[in-house]
# Entry
Amino acid sequence: MVTVINTHEVAQFDAWKQIFDAGAENRSRAGINVRNVYRSADNENKVTVISEVADIDSAKAFIANLRPILTKAGVSEPEFMILEKVM
# Structure
């Protein structure tokens, strides 16, 4: 199991949230388990999503397929971190 942390700024949070919510079934089919969604206390349009994925290859494949959806959702320059738990 790996953890994926995705932080990005969106053009408008409510519009992003609608698109994010609509993707729940696709995430589930891809084996993406969203653990938490955060919104910055200093910038309501900066979002962090923390997910768990079965393995690194699945995480990378999902990220690659996600980029067009992020563009549609008004995301600018997403930052993805794929983390392996060591302890």
Observations:
- Residues 2-84 form a domain with the Alpha-Beta Plaits fold (CATH 3.30.70.100).
- The chain has a mean pLDDT of 91.
- The longest helix spans residues 56-72.
- The chain is about 40% helix and 40% strand.
